[in-house]
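One-letter codes give the sequence; backbone shape is given numerically. An example follows:

. . .
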Amino acid sequence: MASPATCFDALYAISDDPWGLRARWYERRKRELTMAALPRERYRCAFEPGCSNGELSALLATRCDAVFALDLNGRAVQLARARLAGMPAVHVEQGSVPHAWPGREFDLIVLSEIAYYFDEAELETLAQKIRATLSADGTLIACHWRHRYDEAMQSAEAVHASLHTLCALPRIARHEESDLLLDVWTRHGASVAQEEGIA
């Protein structure tokens, strides 16, 4: 089986939107679900590895003071930079997680359709990086496709179970449907109402 990087190179060679992020209703709805699940209105600094052509990054920029976006594919990085050129708060770089993880603190980490490409050892490294860089009031959100995907190392269910165990964070929300699985964890586990002092 070809590596994800090789497959991505082939996909981007024939399309600037190989997963239909702009056109497909599933992708547009998934982004809106992801944004709606965020428990806070604003974040200081978000990290989105696997940003692809920057469609989710653009939405994150409306809720975050700064967004650090990363993708392993050079063409994806070019497309994301073009898509986000009018958003100075978004910084796009080329790199591969979990090893090329920024050495700074984030109060939002977004894993969208990326973690099932990792084996168990890489998931452990991913969790270590999350624990080391997620702020004391930070949010981790993960959303993954639940159907079979040839390049995926694990299922969405297995990945989210591993993240829950390895990151050891309180889970405050879960959304399940036939196509996707979405989980939200926070360092403190407080509800929005508690944070606003109304509960």
